[in-house]
Design goal:
By secondary structure, the chain is an alpha/beta fold. It is built from eight helices and 14 strands. The longest helix is centred in the N-terminal third of the chain and has 16 residues, at 81-96.
């Protein structure tokens, strides 16, 4: 009889929680609880959110896990900041509960500018009043779908970190960094900046996939970012390793692959492994879950978890994992 009672209590507790992230000392960092027992639509069940406590001093995350977020990737969720917060937390919590990982930090790649057809870049916020530097190749527009100030404040409040990403076109990357930092650098959630190199001097490249990033340019970007905060990180993203800096390396620099269009998971892993091998001991990260790969990942049980576990098992230098916004409402992260 006692055993049956405890079994019922255990099942009740298990159903009530979607995920728990724990720090290295065993303290609960956050719990996301389902507000309803039946899910009306895959990827869209509403969950209640409990604020995440601060990470204990001195603890470094083993992995950073979360979502890519842009104004064009899932526009119907542009104003739903809590929706993104919850899913980033759930994804990180799911990984923390599935691998021997230590602490897993929820992180969002937050895109604040988009490539323009004329070769420049459109910033989705107003130019900071105090900024007096170059705006060559830049347009500033506040009506692009995401209230970035409000979104970053939501991340601040709930313990989700963010890396600000640019699609710079032919604009000055140093100016991109300075402008974004003046606009958003007061947010505690920000841990660095990133550039999607596919949109780096794209119009000037022969195949319109961006010019290769030179070592000296990557070094300048890194130094600029570190001048704002010595703990900040920089990522450079592409799907083609030949677009990455040839030899420049730094402890705060990492390389993010957004490669897609694979026939199956094994093919994706072959490509992701090749990316890591090309980066010569540098930390790497991956974006996945693209619509072009849905034909095979949609047949998996819990695609975000299955793909993530395979990456972490096969690629030791993988520390950053992101499901893309394009299909973020078509999967569950718990």
């Amino acid at each position: 009889m006692k055993r049956s009672i405890w079994y019922i209590i255990f099942l009740t507790a298990l159903i009530s929680m979607s995920c728990i992230i724990k720090s290295l000392d065993g303290d609960i960092v956050y719990t996301a609880v389902k507000a309803q027992q039946k899910e009306p639509e895959k990827g869209n069940a509403m969950r209640k959110l409990k604020k995440q406590t601060k990470i204990p001093a001195g603890i470094k995350p083993s992995y950073y896990v979360g979502l890519r977020r842009s104004s064009y990737g899932l526009s119907k969720r542009n104003s739903a900041d809590e929706w993104w917060v919850i899913r980033a937390q759930e994804f990180a919590g799911m990984i923390a509960g599935s691998v021997d990982s230590g602490y897993v930090q929820p992180l969002i790649v937050h895109i604040v500018s988009g490539y323009s057809g004329d070769g420049g870049s459109v910033f989705e916020f107003a130019k900071p009043k105090g900024y007096t530097g170059s705006t060559r190749g830049m347009v500033f527009s506040v009506d692009r779908g995401i209230d970035h100030e409000k979104a970053l404040a939501a991340y601040d409040e709930n313990g989700v970190q963010a890396i600000i990403q640019f699609e710079p076109g032919n604009s000055d990357m140093l100016a991109n960094i300075e402008i974004a930092h003046q606009a958003f650098g007061h947010h505690s959630c920000i841990i660095g900046y990133g550039v999607d190199a596919e949109w780096y001097f794209t119009k000037e490249s022969k195949d319109e996939t961006g010019l290769p990033v030179k070592d000296e340019d990557a070094k300048k970007w890194m130094e600029k970012i570190l001048s704002h905060n010595p703990e900040y990180t920089l990522f450079i993203k592409h799907w083609n390793p030949s677009r990455m800096p040839r030899t420049y390396r730094h402890p705060n620099l990492w390389y993010l692959s957004d490669s897609q269009i694979f026939p199956d998971l094994d093919s994706l892993m072959d490509d992701f492994s090749y990316w890591s091998n090309c980066m010569k001991e540098q930390v790497v990260g991956y974006q996945f879950g693209y619509p072009n790969d849905k034909k095979w990942w949609s047949t998996m049980h819990n695609p975000p978890l299955a793909i993530s576990k395979r990456i972490l098992a096969d690629i030791p230098r993988a520390k950053f994992l992101f499901w893309v916004d394009f299909t973020a409402d078509e999967v569950d992260f718990w």
